[in-house]
Amino acid sequence: MEGTEMAWVTGSGLAAITSALLHEVNAGDHIVASMTTYGGTFAFMANYLKKFNVNTTFVNMQNLDAVKKALAEHPNTKVVYTETMNNPLLRIANVPELAKMAHAAGAKLIVDNTFTPMIFSPCRLGADITVYSMTKYINGTNDCVAGAICGSAEYINSLIDVNNGTCMLLGPVLDPMRSASINKNLHTLHIRMKKHSENAMYLAKRFKEVGFKYNYPGLPEHPDHELFCSMMNEGYGFGGMISIDMGTADKASRIMEVMQKKGVGYLAVSLGYFKTLFSNSGKSTSSEVPEDIQKEMGMSEGLIRFSMGLDNDIEATFQLIKESVDECK
Ligand SMILES: *Cc1c(COP(=O)(O)O)cnc(C)c1O
User: What are 215-244's pLDDT values in tens digits?
Assistant: First the structure.
């Protein structure tokens, strides 16, 4: 899937992320990271790593000049860290360019590809390490917690070295029974990704027709549509994540309650399930991200993020969403 020589599975996505990061940095090193990462990743870099005197400069990954500047200001940078598709604005990181910049500065590029398995293969685009939360799309049935780290054989072998490997010594192992059950689900991932993408694309077009403020990278008006096309593996679409902006957190919350009652899906913060899940990002998945940074990212408090399910009749789903919004006018 990734085109890497090896991979290692971990007990959670956050275990994959923290292990990969800890393995790359020594006390006094620096990280340049996207300001829009998963909240736990953000908190790990912003707070926890400080106890090892590892500091992080958070930048807007859309601004490549800001990345260049941060790298120039911190010659001790060992890692550039980003997500291929960020949450909840669904902006796309320019992996090939970021890889060039990181390598020129003597750093590695680590990419979290949790939102877009099959669609992107970050290591094929130049990243050194790809990390996953398999809790989401890869397993796809929301009944497990797991992660993965993909990279070169040399790197993975050093991660699991019995004397010095982070994945060996901190013990973030994935239970073998669980590994086997995820492996079974992995065999349908390509078909699931196509369907998640097809449903999200359908909704994006319908949202556009009825005048909702929608955000989906599959449509040309998304600021990263072209970049997405230049990086994507053909045939899996533009992903199952889509968001709409309802203006205020209160309105978003009322609409989500109604959608849940009508059976659109579940009000839940996860993603990649066969049922549709939705949440208000500012109050949930990005709540670790300080409000001023949420503003700088361009996040609205009324944003509802959908992880589209595998619905067979997506027009019916659209009608239920529309009714829910209309009821909350
Ligand atoms: C959920 C998630 C994680 C954390 O994964 P867990 O398996 O819950 O530990 C990391 N990154 C992203 C992008 C996620 O969505």
Answer: 999 999 999 999 999 999 999 999 999 999
Beta-carbon count within 10 A of 97 CB: 16
Amino acid identity for residue 149 in this structure: I
3 three-state secondary structure: coil
Over residues 95-145, the pLDDT tens digits come to 999 999 999 999 999 999 999 999 999 999 999 999 999 999 999 999 999
Q: Exposure of 104 by Cβ count < 10 A (0-12 exposed, 13-18 middle, 19+ buried)?
A: exposed
Q: What is the DSSP letter of 232?
A: P
Confidence of residue 255 (pLDDT cuts 50, 70, 90): very high
Distance 48 CA to ligand 1 centre (A): 17
CA-CA-CA-CA torsion for 51, 283, 98, 81, nearest 10 degrees?
20
Please give all residues whose beta carbon lies within 6 A of any atom in ligand 1, as ranges. 12-14, 17, 38, 40, 83, 112, 114-115, 133, 135-136, 145, 147
Look up the pTM and report it.
0.96
> From edge to edge, which strands make up the β-sheet containing 276-280?
214-215, 241-245, 303-307, 276-280, 265-267
